[in-house]
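User: I'm writing a short report section on ligand binding and want a predicted complex to refer to. Could you take this sequence and 3-methyl-2-oxobutanoic acid and write out the structure as tokens? A short remark afterwards would be nice.
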Amino acid sequence: MPSNETEPLYGGRRPGRVTVRDIAAAKARGEKWPMLTAYDALTAGIFDEAGIPVLLVGDSAGNVVFGYDTTIPVTIDDLIPLTAAVVRGTKRAMVVADLPFGSYQASPAAALQAAVRFMKEAGAHAVKLEGGIRVAHHVEELVAAGIPVMGHLGLTPQSVHAFGGFRVQGRGEAGDRLLHDAKALEAAGAFAVVLEGIPAALGARITEALHIPTIGIGAGADCDAQVLVWQDMAGLSPRSPKFAKRYADVGGALRTAATQFAEEVASGAFPTEEYSYR
Ligand code: KIV
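Assistant: Sure. The structure tokens for the complex follow:
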């Protein structure tokens, strides 16, 4: 039977759900791995079969599912059913739920209350929250309660208005502050940290300095893992950021399918007998 200690996180034949121990072991082996967002059971199932070891039910659902301009309006009640669907649609991936804006900032107790809802009502295996030193006590509280926590630093979308727009973070001296934030998250017990929208050299510096894995999104090639919003990665989003490589044209394929369906209905070519009951 394959062992989780030796099987790679991506591409191996590991039994069971991915755990925080597997993620720590991958860092120790110097292995790189992929993470994607997911918001529904069917696409989550496809990513699970493709071997993506960690799926994030991101508050990016605000943009790609609910059609907002930012993630700020997203609520816990918006994300719980999506998280539950992703858990139901998968067998192997660790499912991480994003704590949305306003659900955790007030206090460690607020963070615990929010995280507990995701664990109990949706079956999430871990939660993610944004911020560094200012949320270190929140992370400690969750970890003490037995909840795995993923941090998120850099161009954290919930702070978009404080940043004055979606701008690269961590240039110059701000890079030192981000490194301190990353170390604070590690010390507080986070099992991994997302680095978003920072210079590649800073991504490399933080990755080198931490014992927990870094997960980059616009943070260069040296992060331990890489994450993308699946609609950006698969070419469904009409616009996507510079760092988001498009690996498919799902938007084009859907447009073609919808147009062909519409034309066949309009011309009477669909449904034929094959698609009808006797
Ligand atoms: O909400 C999200 O999808 C995220 C990732 C982009 C890291 O936070």
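A remark for your report: The chain has a mean pLDDT of 96. Residues 250-267 form the longest helix (18 residues).
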